[in-house]
UniProtKB/TrEMBL annotation:
Keywords: Phosphoprotein. GO terms for biological process: phosphorelay signal transduction system. Gene3D superfamilies: 3.40.50.2300. Coiled coil: none annotated. The keyword Phosphoprotein applies. It comes from Plebeiibacterium sediminum. The modification 4-aspartylphosphate is found at D52. This is Response regulator.
Length: 118
């Protein structure tokens, strides 16, 4: 069973993401801020990370940079309300595998999951 880590400071976002993931056979881990997320990444080595960008203690950009620096080759899907071209390009440049805009559209979310977990 694949482990998926949701890192998002908004409880309602985590609840929505978990509902969307219920279609899949994943073990779901959650973190409510970037620092907690990083600790879980190091400890649990998830198969996929669903990452918000703007969070307290450590933001999504910092996590992407640290994943790259530590040579942790874990696919990351960015889930963010900031879907400006500059933000998307920065995320992909830092190694994100996909970007899905919030509010989440079920089809876009599922396409990203299927592409990375097929």
């Amino acid at each position: 069973m694949k482990k998926v880590l949701i890192v998002d400071d908004a409880l309602e976002s985590r609840v929505t993401i978990k509902k969307l993931l219920s279609l899949y056979n994943f073990q779901i881990l959650e973190a409510s801020d970037g620092l907690e997320g990083w600790k879980l990444i190091v400890k649990e080595k998830p198969d996929l990370i669903l990452l918000d960008l703007y969070m307290p203690n450590k933001d999504g950009f910092e996590i992407l940079k640290e994943l790259k620096e530590e040579w942790l080759d874990i696919p990351v899907i960015i889930l963010s309300g900031d879907h400006s071209l500059n933000t998307i390009e920065a995320c992909l440049g830092y190694g994100a595998s996909a970007f899905v805009a919030k509010p989440l559209i079920k089809e876009d979310f599922n396409n990203a999951i299927k592409t990375l977990c097929a």
